[in-house]
Write a structure and sequence with these properties.
Elements (H helix, E strand, L loop, with lengths): L11 H16 L5 H22 L5 H9 L6
């Protein structure tokens, strides 16, 4: 029987970092500095690409205020 892994589109180095982080968290150990640095760099790159593509999205606060309704007077 052959075991084939499904292609998730996630680069192998990203999967490896995610697995290491999950293992560290589960074991209560600190995340290695190098992995934390790589994750921060990748997240900053993705954030910048999204801002370039979509601009700054300010939907959270208005949505919460709309759902919550008016606050009672103090």
């Amino acid at each position: 029987m052959s075991t084939r892994l499904k292609d998730t589109g996630i680069p192998p180095e990203v999967s490896a970092d995610a697995e290491t982080i999950a293992l560290c968290v589960a074991a209560g150990k600190p995340i290695p500095d190098e992995i934390a640095r790589r994750v921060r760099e990748r997240s900053q790159e993705v954030t910048e690409r999204l801002r370039t593509q979509f601009g700054t999205l300010d939907i959270g606060v208005p949505a919460i205020r709309e759902l919550r309704g008016e606050l009672p007077a103090p």
